[in-house]
Amino acid sequence: MPQNTALTGPAGLDGRQDTPIGAGRPTDTRVDPYLGTVVHVVGTRQARPNLPSTGCPFCPGGLEAPEPYDVRWFKNRWPAMHPDRCEVVLYTSVHDATFWSLGVAGARRVIDLWTERFSSLGSRDDVDYVLIFENRGPEVGATIAHPHGQIYAYDHVPERQSRLLATGWRPELDADERYVAEHGGWLATVPVASTFPVALTIAPKVQVPDITALGDAARDELATMLVDVLERLDHYYGTPLPYMMWLNQRPTDGGDWPSSWFNIEIVSPWRREGTARFIAAAEVACNEYFNPVIPEMVAERLRELG
Prior knowledge:
The protein is an alpha+beta fold. It has helices at 103-122, 159-166, 216-236, 281-286, 295-304; strands at residues 16-20, 26-31, 38-41, 72-75, 86-90, 129-136, 148-154, 179-183, 186-189, 198-204, 243-248, 263-268, 270-272, 275-276.
């Protein structure tokens, strides 16, 4: 099976690096020759359905879940990269569940599946970074309501993750007014300068590089934390909150990465109920952002919801 080429080779002035995606369909990876921005042009995803035409494909008996299950993963039929680099993770067979309604036991099953897929994908020679993430709600692009997340296996370390590693990111153990909650060895805080109105960071107070380094007790505590904060977020505006969540972890390119500190980011574009904060011209043009929501007020509200 053809593999994507790394992004380190020469790209020419137009920044194009065409790579095979199987069955003769190209994925066109381009790099801006002046800014270095990586763009994956995936025209095939224009043909993906916005909503299932009949039933939910993630419910038992559906297209992607023919048998009963607790948690499940499968290859994405509409991949953003090479088909064997994009996976879907189903959190539960219950269609109208939320992550927090799974309870600690259900959340722990998801964490265990994340760990298994991170180990499997990260062990490949052609995978340098495994991104586990979730888009929840149509406001952030989720086309199916059934609780699920995704995994992308990159053949390079993405630029944002590279910057976090290079600067030695670590959690704020004394966040003071931006403190939200802690469970066991885990801390939840609101970041000091998020570009999103609502933002939360979850991290262990003692450094671990990735999810595979967590023992049973730490995984249970993480499950407890996720159930807690995601329920608080759903009560923040009194209605289910659209959010994006992703795991920042050690790259799997064989490097040492001594600064890697596992953490989870959760962000929402809502500045008030049903109202998104749009990223506008001055922000896109200058890569400098204007957030109308005060981080300390977000933390205070989330603490109250505990």
